[in-house]
């Protein structure tokens, strides 16, 4: 309850949820003694795959006994997920104490919710100067609160595609502009660029960072992976090849994210053993990202049928989810809820062989599109039906043996499902 009261006060500090600027975060961090200058960081930018890549890095580093701090957003089930220090999430009491300390320093000055949370992370992270900090950028990167470091160990550029277009000027809602926002202010250190959804996007990224003096690694040019047989895949870079077990995550795209994580860690000469990589990638905790739900209240409703939960919410996320679903020989039923600022028709157009589609409302999210309106938007692509909540939606389905249910469209919906489950 105390934690929620503090978070409620944080939300009232600025009239806007998002206000892209570095001024407020810089001013607050200066009051805190600029903690962001005292940490070792790996920054992760992009549109899709950021959290998955961070979790792969984190799992490998933990396996090697390396202490990490991790800052990600948004959280799926609780705010504590964003604040990992010394390989442990902060407990409610510790988090409330941290928040109160920074709130006092801020002295009621205007600052956005994300900005003050970022200042909280930097302040706490500085207490562990030897830890590696895995930091996920928020909206874009150039004016994102995480972009106030003076140096870092590396920057990872995950898959970039069109998303959050409503934050760009109408005449500049292009992939070129998005790449510029995400990559033009990367620090000079190491830049590792993940597999992109097109050759053209990779070319745009290369052009954007051409004057950056960093050591640069590109997927396929400098590191790659290939599918193996009998539960293995193969990774290769300038340090040599690795025969690796398949990870405990689903989807081909996760092999791309994991390969980028491996490339980053090997590039930094952290003395990570091959066995740490092999074991680490089989212990990745990545909730809400193509996650199979195997037990719980919601799982009980689908009985013996398979239940997949995925927080994808843009066209590239839909593309890679569909690629995975096409490997399954079964009927596929979708339950979808989305935020209002997404390209809904474009998102749904990527999915093939849909057996049924039900739209739902996302509870507790004022910026979500209503399930009724989403149903209307989907009508041009597929004949959807509407239920006001997920439990009703599941009960309305006629699932046959071996059918799969996919709940997707939003990380916020994924969080609601996990909490219900």
Output the keywords.
single chain, 421 residues, alpha/beta, UDP-N-acetylmuramoyl-L-alanine:D-glutamate ligase, Protein-Tyrosine Phosphatase, Chain A, six-stranded mixed β-sheet, 15 helices, 36% helix, 17% strand, globular
Summarize the structure.
36% of the residues lie in helices and 17% in strands. It has 421 residues and is α/β, with parallel strands linked by helices. The mean pLDDT is 94.
In words, what does this structure look like?
With 421 residues, the protein is an alpha/beta fold. The protein folds into 2 domains: 279 residues, UDP-N-acetylmuramoyl-L-alanine:D-glutamate ligase, CATH 3.40.1190.10; 130 residues, Mur ligase, C-terminal domain (Protein-Tyrosine Phosphatase, Chain A, Alpha-Beta Complex), CATH 3.90.190.20. 36% of the residues lie in helices and 17% in strands. Helix 7 links the parallel strand 7 and strand 8. Helix 3 packs across helix 9 and helix 6 packs across helix 7. The chain is globular and about 60 Å long.
Number of strands: 17
Work out the radius of gyration: 21 Å
Query: What is the fourth-level CATH superfamily of the largest domain?
Result: Mur-like, catalytic domain
Q: Please, how many domains?
A: 2
Mean pLDDT: 94
- Output the structural class: alpha/beta
Specify the overall morphology. Answer: globular
Q: Biggest sheet: strands side by side, in what order?
A: 2-5-1-6-7-8
CATH topology of the largest domain: UDP-N-acetylmuramoyl-L-alanine:D-glutamate ligase
Low-confidence region ranges: none
Question: Largest sheet, described in full?
Answer: 6 strands, parallel
Do you know the CATH architecture of the largest domain? 3-Layer(aba) Sandwich
Strand content: 15-25%
- Report the span from N to C terminus: 22 Å
Oligomer designation:
single chain
